[in-house]
Every structure is written in C-alpha cells, then in structure tokens.
Amino acid sequence: MEETLHERAEEGSVTCDSPGANVVEVLKKKVFEGGEVTREEALALAAVTDKAVLYEAAGEIRDRFAGRYFDTCSIVNARSGRCSENCKWCSQSVVFKTHVREYELIDEGSCLELARLNARYGIDKFSFVTSGRSLSDKNIDRLCDYARKIRAELGIKLCASMGLLGREQLLRLKEAGITRYHCNLESSRRFFPTLCTSHTMDEKIETIRAAQEVGMEVCSGGIIGMGEAMEDRVDLALTVRGLGVKSIPVNVLNPIPGTPLEGTPPLADEEVLTTVAVFRFINPDAFLRFAGGRMLIAHIEEEAIRAGINSAILGDMLTTVGSKVVEDMEKVKRLGFTTIDNGERGVREF
C-alpha cells in the first residue's frame, strides 16, 4: 500500500507517515474511478486523525454509488429461543440462561397482522427470522405458506433468516416469494472461532453461496463491539464484498445478561462512526444497514447516516427493543433521503 500511496503522493501530496485528509482524498478518488480499497488502505483510513474528513468522504461515496434512497425493512421473530448453537452474544441459545421467551413458531394470524402493520408504515421489506442452527422442513413449509399469503395480500418484499439452510430449502423459500436471504458472517475469519464453536464461517459462506445460486439476494454483515480489532472489521467488510453482498447489516453489540459477553464495554462513538465510514469505502454501492443495538447509538445515528449508512431495520429487534418507526421515517426524510425506491440507484455523474 505504501508504494501505491507514495506514487499517488506525487500528484496529491500524500504521505503515509501521517494519515490524514490527503489519504482520504486519494482513496476517495480511487473509489470514484472504480477501484477497490485494499486491506492496507482500509486500515490507513481507519487511522486517519481528521475523522470529519473521513466521514464526509464516505457520505460522498454513498451518494455517488447508491444515491439518496434509504432502504427499510422490519423483522418478525418467527421462532424464538431453543437454539442449539453457542454464539456468545446471543440470548436465544439454550447454552446460556437468558430467560428469553420461547416458542416453536409464530401463528399465522399474528404474522400476517405484523406484515400488514409494516406495509401501512411504508416499510419496504418484511423478514422472517427464526432461531436455531436451521429450520425443520415442516416449519419451512408453514412459513412458505405465510409468505405466499402476505405476497398475495400486500405485495411487500420478503426476506428470511433461518440459519444454515441447503439449496433445496432455499429454493422453496424463493418459490414462495422470498427474494432475499440473510446470514450474518458476524466477524472476521480469525475472530469468529472465539465467538462460536458450534458452527463455522465456512458453513455460513456455503449457505450464502447456495442462496445466490437459486437466485436470491443476500444480506450479510456482522456485529461490532464484541472485543474484535479494527482489522477484524475490515476483514469482514472485505469478505462480504468478495461474496458480492449488497445488503450489509452493521449491528452494535447489545450485551445480554446471561451471555458470555454481558459485561463487554461499549464502543466509543468515534469507533462506531469510523467503522461505518470504512465499510462504505470498501462497499461503495451496498446498503449499509442499521440493525441490532441501534438504541445504544441513538445519539449518533444522524452522524452515522452522514458517514455512509443508507438503510435500517425498523421496529423491534428480536429479543431487544428497537426504534420508533414513524420517527425513523421522519428523520430519514429530514436528512434528505427518500424511502421510495425509484430505481435510480447506481453510479451518477457529477
């Protein structure tokens, strides 16, 4: 990276010894010209001391490659608790005593009513989220039936997050009208085994690729604030870029009592905003999505949007409290975004 930046320094007065505005401008220009930010360059961005310049540039990249459309979605906790996996952050695992509410599957009436509510709010997508390593064929069939009824009545776009499913199961979801599949990688390949030993990142990637093979879009990101380093966040952003993922949730750890991460100290505001900005440099045209832990960073949400966020999960987040939908919609519009997809996203000339 040093040779690259020093070569560019001849044109733009960049020095690698003191990362700052020049590094940001050089790499913004690289992205604008269609280049991809490397791992070393991303870490140089994270080290920039003038954060305001970094955040502003990330926002400009977002505007150029993704426009001013703000994508919204909501989730229904379709199956709660009883998960066999040992993910250290999660309240749904049977391994930890978290006193989370448990049920096998939401009933059809409740699910359809939630979908109707979200459609009335103008939320773009509605996602079925189930606990567990995967979902039984019986429950997949039931949720596919729900999906067909929701599509027929409301026309709202549908997503699903149902664990480590195989190609045939994913195809059934797609045929029922579910067009996007969610499977978070959570963190870097290096750090993931310290968080979960009951399944691997490779198994997650296999599911992501299977979803893509059957023609589904993919949503995959991670959680920050679990003790990982900035290098791990950069590696996660690079991995999802390599997989062609265009919807990337950025969750902020909400430590749940009873889980191994319950005492984890919160990230500094600057760390959150810097992570968002670096993710945007690496994934210029993706939806960077506010997700879990939003209430912990409510005081910097507008700054995060200016630094590159352009989508959000609205409403409640599985087993924790989410955000107020109407207030969110008003905030997004006040910041100059539209929540109506007019099909004009993409690279624009300035």
What does this structure look like?
The protein is of the alpha/beta class and 350 residues long. Helices cover 41% and strands 13% of the residues. The protein is built from 12 helices and 9 strands. α6 (137-154) links the parallel β2 (125-130) and β3. The longest helix is centred in the middle third of the chain and has 18 residues, at 137-154.
CATH homology superfamily of the largest domain: Aldolase class I
Name of the CATH class of the largest domain: Alpha Beta
Q: Which strand order spans the largest sheet, edge to edge or round the barrel? A: 5-4-3-2-1-9-8-7-6
Q: If classified by CATH, what would the architecture of the largest domain be?
A: Alpha-Beta Barrel
List keywords for this structure.
globular, disordered C terminus, TIM Barrel, alpha/beta, 41% helix, 350 residues
Helices, strands, pairings?
Layout: H1 2-12, H2 21-32, H3 39-46, H4 51-66, E1 71-79, H5 108-121, E2 125-130, H6 137-154, E3 157-161, H7 167-175, E4 178-182, H8 201-213, E5 217-219, E6 222-224, H9 230-242, E7 247-252, H10 269-282, E8 287-290, H11 301-306, E9 311-313, H12 325-334
